[in-house]
Design goal:
Number of domains: 1
Largest sheet: 3 strands, antiparallel
Structural class: alpha+beta
Shape: globular
Distance between the termini: 48 Å
Radius of gyration: 13 Å
């Protein structure tokens, strides 16, 4: 029997409030990639290393459409979405969740 694959849309935040939205089938590993600066680019440059929001999907097409939708939202709407799941902006990838400051600009 084939195992159902799970896809995640996630939002990472930096200590300065920069947001990064991504998709992955391996949320824990991808979160560690962000924390360790494994890949060159936006996430490494702005140190978006705290998982503040995620959604789970069983179909990659639906997940990709949601990622695109979130990327097109204004910052204020993204902040409200994060606050709906994680009001104190704690790093959801850590056991000892450290709050991330909420930035509105």
């Amino acid at each position: 029997m084939k195992r159902q694959k799970t896809y995640f849309i996630y939002i990472m935040a930096s200590s300065s409030g920069t947001l990064y939205i991504g998709i992955s089938s391996r949320l824990e590993g991808r979160t560690q990639d962000h924390k360790n600066g494994v890949y060159e680019g936006f996430s490494k440059k702005y140190r978006t290393d705290r998982l503040v929001y995620f959604e789970r999907y069983s179909e990659v097409g639906v997940a990709l459409a949601r990622e695109e939708q979130l990327k097109n939202w204004r910052r204020e709407k993204k902040i409200k979405l994060i606050a709906s799941m994680n009001p104190s902006w704690k790093d959801l990838s850590k056991e000892d969740t450290t709050p991330v400051p909420i930035f509105k600009k």
